Known about the structure:
Blueprint: H1 25-37, E1 48-51, E2 58-60, E3 70-72, E4 75-76, H2 100-104, E5 105-108, H3 112-121, E6 130-132, H4 141-146, H5 148-158, E7 163-167, H6 176-184, E8 188-193, H7 199-205, H8 212-224, E9 229-236, H9 245-254, E10 259-264, H10 271-282, H11 287-296, H12 316-332
Parallel strand pairs: 1-5, 3-6, 6-7, 7-8, 8-9, 9-10
Antiparallel strand pairs: 2-3, 4-5
Helix pairs in contact: 3-5, 5-6, 9-12
Amino acid sequence: MKNKNVVKGRGAQQNTLNRFSEFSYEKRDDFLEFCRLEGEQADTNKTKYIPIFPKTIVNKVTSPDIGMGYSMNPYQGCEHGCIYCYARNTHEFWGYSAGLDFERVIFIKKDASNLLEQKIKSKRWKATTIVLSGNTDCYQPAEKRFEITRACLKIFLKYKHPVSIITKNGLILRDLDILKELANDNLITVNISVTSLSEKTRRVLEPRTVSIKKRLETIRVLSEHKIPVNAMLAPIIPGINSHEILNLAKAVSDNGAVSFGFTVVRLNGALGQIFTDWIHKTLPDKATKVLHQIEECHGGSLNDSRYGIRNRGEGKIAIQIHDLMTMAKRLYFKDKNRIELNTNLHEQYKDGQMRLF
């Protein structure tokens, strides 16, 4: 039976200890529980937006198994609240918890588009695909208010620079006008995350994301406008969505995705504690089985940090997942191929307009 004392509308159910801070969130949680028992309002559960002003916005990705060279993130923290999100751990660098703080304290990089423009105008910069976002969703709820992602897309279009987007939010369709212009010059790919076809599963895994129906519609609309879409069937969590692999692949293919990728869930850093606490409160009947199956994919641990293996997993369960993915590609993506983006136009537009010869 589901625990009645869950934080509604959120993924994480606690604030974990920040490994970089002496302050213990365990003490804070004790205080919140005391207030609840005493009938006092200790926490409004509202989202707080904090402007920050970094000196740079484009990050070089050094991990050899990520599949991207550069990324940028207009926001830090993410209100979507996906319980498995690897980006949670980055919130600790800001002095906050990877748990509830990650979902409720969102840092806003208002100057992102100006920083991006400075970067790609640099004489030393050579055009290569920049990914929006490699960490937190660039179309999370904050984007509707601040429109930082839209401002950045205008810069990519102005300078004819290739960009790839990762999101699970249908808000991306708001920017269809810019995306279509980018697609005309083969400067855009979109990666839409679809983790389950079950709304019940989606609500507990990703509490503040758009519905599965809306995500499939987003893939279809983008594809109809000749904007190439790769579906991210990630992460695959044994015992939660692993049985959906073939159906997921067929659904995204039927709606126009040209390819798909996947990862096997791993719970690095604070994620192990956050996920374990969450599953015992929200899916108690499955908790022990799911945790053990995740451990089977990572040599008896909830996490494996080895490059090339950490996102793929190993062992019998991981092999079964990979075999199903191979079958899915053969069945539903036989004649489809990923798109290589155009990096040749940017040099001609570095000054913001076509250079005259």
